[in-house]
Amino acid sequence: MLRFFILFSLFLHSSVAAPKTPAAAAAVPAKKWLTLNGQEPAVVARGGFSGLFPESSISANDLAIGTSSPGFTMLCNLQMTKDGVGLCLSDIILDNATTISSVFPKAQKTYKVNGQDLKGWFVIDYDADTIFNKVTLVQNIFSRPSIFDGQMSVSAVEDVLGTKPPKFWLSVQYDAFYMEHKLSPAEYLRSLRFRGINVISSPEIGFLKSIGMDAGRAKTKLIFEFKDPEAVEPTTNKKYSEIQQNLAAIKAFASGVLVPKDYIWPIDSAKYLKPATTFVADAHKAGLEVYASGFANDLRTSFNYSYDPSAEYLQFVDNGQFSVDGVITDFPPTASQSITCFSHQNGNLPKAGHALVITHNGASGDYPGCTDLAYQKAIDDGADIIDCSVQMSKDGIAFCHDAADLSASTTARTTFMSRATSVPEIQPTNGIFSFDLTWAEIQSVKPQIENPFTATGFQRNPANKNAGKFTTLADFLELGKAKAVTGNAAYLASKKGLGVVDVVKSALTNSTLDKQSTQKVLIQSDDSSVLSSFEAVPPYTRVLSIDKEIGDAPKTSIEEIKKHADAVNLLRTSLITVSQSFATGKTNVVEEMHKANISVYVSVLRNEYIAIAFDYFSDPTIELATFIAGRGVDGVITEFPATATRYLRSPCSDLNKDQPYAILPADAGALLTVADKEAQLPAIPPNPPLDAKDVIDPPLPPVAKLASNGTEGGPPQTPPRSGTVAIAANLSLSLLAMMALGLLYTA
User: Fold this and answer.
1) Is the pLDDT of residue 109 over 80?
2) Are 134 and 94 in contact (CB under 8 A)?
3) Concatenated DSSP letters for 351-394?
4) Which of 431, 444, 473, 485 has its Cα between 20 and 30 A from that of 692?
5) Is residue 740 part of a domain?
6) Rounded CA separation 555/538 (Å)
7) First to last CA, the chain
8) What angle do CA 312, 315, 319 make, to 5 degrees?
9) Residue 669 CA to chain centroid, in angstroms?
10) Three-state secondary structure string covering 634-702
11) What's the rounded Cα separation, in Å, for the pair 173 and 204?
């Protein structure tokens, strides 16, 4: 490990009352849904699991069946070949979803569809044999896996019906266009006798009316689909916004409506939710079910959801005012877990399992890290442990901040760029360091949300990017908790005359945490000599942070860890290897550590889908399940504690429970096996094993004696008291505390 880069953390873990008995905990009242008929909202898988595989491919359909809640609905978008065969394809134009343009590069045509000229390769120009034998599917959203492109055949409607999904939904988008070209979707449906088709939807009123009697005899539900409010419905030549004004009239030919989700929860230009419309209430009053479309884990939507797709579903099905009757989604397992597992989740539900939710600079995905707002949100979100990364100002004020360099996480560059300096012992680049500014100067700048994905265009809660106040260590300790920071004990001891270990011991003594038994204190560092200095204090549990990727933990390395620590904090990729956004395999590091009675924490988890492997379905909840239920870690360090807490409080996280649906961990490497051999990723070398030499650090240097003016050789400084010191220093100390459940949850 790097000798001069220490992570020094202090965790406080309150002992809590034992949870209720299993019988009492299980006595949860039945869910009451605000749907039209009081039934659980439907999960409708658009083209199967189209968030991973090409739409309506055999793999997409099979995975949807295997990962969705019981009773889910499979949706097929009906397209018709020139010889009248029904296909399941996303659109009437084939080039975005198939290899048609490379097979017939000069066959592009232009047709008028609903009054607009569209150019491309149209399904009506090809017979079924050509489509089945010469054309294959591709993923039609470029941020999704392309490794399966060109390997899967187009599915006929009968193929998808043959997979025997619990329910089947046929979407007929272009009846008027097909009729113009002497193809009749209605006659095609009659040839099938509507068998196995539970729902038919269309944006064309004339089509729904034409099949009404047949659908009624077959007990097939008809749904009218709304398009963009300014688009024109082909039968009536009215805008959909005008049709919306008379929902009662729709009841004459349909039992429900399908709308884009912003009909219900509109979003403003800044990407924040506006108040809900009355659409659902109005439709329910007219006796119509309401289905919402446009759900996908890998689409950027409102900042209100904190990049958590489950939060978006809950906004539509469990907001306390209304619930839609179903959601159309590209990621059916996420919709399934949101409805079945997370809806009506009371705030005081006990966690299933022992894993701790530890924050990374508070709820730093939503507010600037280490601010009062980030900490308060973490508490409200139910975090077990929140963290304070302690830095020092020039005049000796200890405060919470992620790093001594204020450049990236505050607005200091606009005011103090001339004060930037180089401190090679801390970082290779210049920085504006906290120990070069007074506390008054630090308070004159604003905190700023740090975002690891800025280069990709992702933002975090821009309306609050500078919100909150810096938190002093004294104020933080009043909260009764704490966390970790980047520090440099050797640099401080030899150059600044400040002993980090002494500061920590003094703070703990002043807080009487070394003399109590109700709280468990954890000390974390990536420097074994720092951990060794706390060996003489029995109440403390020591955590070694290993900030390099490892693939194995040999016995000699584990034995060395045991000399200095009781737990380790590991990178995600030390537990599950990842290449090109695919999980390629898993290590045995957790099992090896647990055999030696060493606890394992994993860091850092984030909600943004670009940080999440495809194997986790672009869903932070599946990643949590993979590390907690799959790998058995003892805690997760996250910037979005609400997501982790919701998962752990759900009964679906307990895989030992007999229940209709469970949130399953991903099987690393399994997704890649679906791809053809020629498309497989190149092999990557395994992570190196942890070397015992990486665990051993030389003793910390003695604290230098500095003169009162900051020069060496003078008398020692007055020992720091109550979290303050008398000299400027780069103090990188982290205090972490777990609140008693009585403080976090309603009793």
Assistant:
1) yes
2) no
3) PSSS-EEEEBTTBTTTS-TTBHHHHHHHHHTT-SEEEEEEEE-T
4) 485
5) no
6) 25
7) 44
8) 160
9) 20
10) CEEEECCHHHHHHHHHCHHHCCCCCCCCCCCCCCCCCHHHHCCHHHCCCCCCCCCECCHHHHCCCCCCC
11) 8
Residue type, 725: V
Query: Residue 390: what pLDDT?
Result: 74
Q: Residue 575 sits in which domain range?
A: 356-651+660-695
Q: CA-to-CA distance for 564 and 534, rounded, in angstroms?
A: 9
Q: Which residue from 125, 97, 90, 131 is spatially nearest to 110, judged by alpha carbons?
A: 125
pLDDT at 89 over 70: yes
Q: What is the pLDDT at residue 518?
A: 61
Q: Residue for token digits 């009352």?
A: 17
**At CA 444, angle to CA 438 and CA 446, rounded to 5?**
120
| Same domain, residue pair 326 and 468 | no
> Is-cis flag, bond preceding 16, omega within 30?
no
The single-letter DSSP state of residue 521 is E
Place of tokens 């807080």: 511
Residues 6+ apart with CB under 8 A from 169: 44, 73, 74, 75, 76, 197, 198, 199, 200, 201
**Sole residue written with tokens 């079945």:** 340
Interatomic CA distance for residues 355 and 634, integer angstroms: 5
Element (H, E) at 483: none
DSSP H or E stretch at residue 225: strand 221-225
Q: 342, 374, 404: which is the final residue of a domain?
A: 342
What residues form DSSP beta bridges with 73? Answer: 44, 167
User: Among 319, 342, 365, where does a domain finish?
Assistant: 342
Q: Show Cβ contacts of residue 73 under 8 Å, excluding neighbours closer than 6 positions.
A: 42, 43, 44, 45, 165, 166, 167, 168, 169, 198, 199, 326
Reduced to 3 states, what is the DSSP secondary structure of residue 180?
Answer: helix
Q: What pLDDT shows up at residue 20?
A: 35
Query: DSSP 3-state assignment of 443?
Result: helix
How many structural domains compose the chain?
2
What is residue 123's predicted lDDT score, i.e. its pLDDT? 98
Token reading at 592: 């090896």
Q: Indicate the burial class of 566 (C-beta count within 10 angstroms; 0-12, 13-18, 19 or more).
A: middle
Element spanning 285, H or E: helix 279-285
Residue 242 tokens, joined: 């005008």
| Greater pLDDT, 511 or 674 | 674
605 & 681 share domain: yes
pLDDT at 249 over 70: yes
